[in-house]
């Protein structure tokens, strides 16, 4: 089983990736994890990627593809894996198709964690972090025991400067613009939309049901483009939300 997990910032992707990995006994792999592992190992790919990242550049498809190919050839990926943060472009998607085909693995199943824009904004604006130990809280779902003080060291909790509604909406729209073509690409082969606005346990159960059942995708390219881009009459969903603000 190969799972590709897509979802905007604040959708709970990390939590669900861990749940899927545990339930189906496959590794959950993020691009950041792969980069760090290659850099730590001192491989040629790792050195090239680290050099680009340190200079503030973006690692190109050629290097990213090679790092992914090397990772999914590892023994723990023999029965499948979950990818978080890859593919990001149609070219990377085509490369991944060839790589899994060469390894005799099944076609990937894409899972889109979909959350209404206002819910995402509420989640992210409620995020706080301890300025001393770095622990992260959410004032709605995972609040500290006392006020806005860290449970571990009682240091004041801080809010990131970019965790404002306007900045968050812009980031969400940029994510949709980049991800829309990727989701449409996987619609014909197997893509499932999951409402990720509820509690994490319920979301995990729904994902487990979809993956365990296999079967046909529940999204077509046309319906997916509607979810991602909004209606032709009203434009992108995050832009509409920004326009409604006073």
Describe what you observe in this structure.
This protein is α/β, with parallel strands linked by helices and 246 residues long. The protein has two domains: 2-26 and 80-128 and 160-244, Rossmann fold (3-Layer(aba) Sandwich); 31-78, no CATH class. The protein has ten helices and eight strands. The strands form two sheets. Strands 2-3-1-4-8 form a five-stranded parallel β-sheet, with helices on both faces. A hairpin with a 5-residue loop joins strand 5 and strand 6. Helix 2 (31-41) packs across helix 3 (44-54), helix 4 (61-72) runs parallel beside helix 5 (90-102) and helix 7 (165-187) packs antiparallel against helix 9. The longest helix is centred in the C-terminal third of the chain and has 23 residues, at 165-187. The protein starts with a strand and ends with a helix.
Furnish the topology, listing elements before pairings:
Blueprint: E1 2-6, H1 13-24, E2 28-30, H2 31-41, H3 44-54, H4 61-72, E3 81-84, H5 90-102, E4 109-114, H6 117-125, E5 127-130, E6 136-138, E7 157-158, H7 165-187, E8 191-195, H8 200-213, H9 221-229, H10 237-244
Helix pairs in contact: 1-8, 2-3, 2-4, 3-4, 4-5, 6-7, 7-9, 7-10
């Amino acid at each position: 089983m190969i799972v590709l997990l897509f979802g905007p910032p604040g959708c709970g992707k990390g939590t669900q990736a861990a749940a899927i990995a545990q339930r189906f006994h496959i590794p959950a792999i993020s691009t950041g994890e792969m980069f760090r592992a290659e850099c730590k190992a001192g491989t040629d790919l790792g050195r090239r990627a680290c050099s680009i990242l340190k200079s503030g550049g973006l690692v190109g498809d050629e290097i990213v593809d090679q790092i992914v190919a090397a990772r999914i050839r590892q023994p723990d990926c023999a029965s499948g894996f979950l990818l978080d943060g890859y593919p990001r472009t149609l070219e990377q998607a085509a490369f991944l198709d060839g790589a899994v085909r060469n390894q005799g693995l099944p076609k990937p199943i894409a899972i889109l964690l979909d959350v209404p824009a206002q819910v995402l904004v509420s989640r992210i604006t409620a995020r706080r972090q301890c300025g001393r130990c770095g622990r992260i809280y959410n004032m709605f779902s995972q609040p500290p025991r006392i006020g806005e003080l860290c449970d571990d060291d009682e240091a004041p909790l801080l809010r990131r400067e970019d965790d404002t509604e306007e900045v968050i909406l812009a980031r969400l729209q940029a994510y949709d613009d980049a991800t829309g073509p990727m989701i449409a690409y996987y619609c014909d082969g197997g893509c499932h939309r999951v409402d990720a606005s509820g509690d994490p346990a319920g979301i995990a159960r729904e994902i487990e049901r979809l993956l365990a059942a296999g079967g046909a995708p529940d999204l077509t390219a046309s319906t997916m483009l509607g979810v991602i881009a909004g209606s032709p009459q009203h434009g992108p969903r995050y832009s509409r939300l920004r326009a409604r603000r006073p």
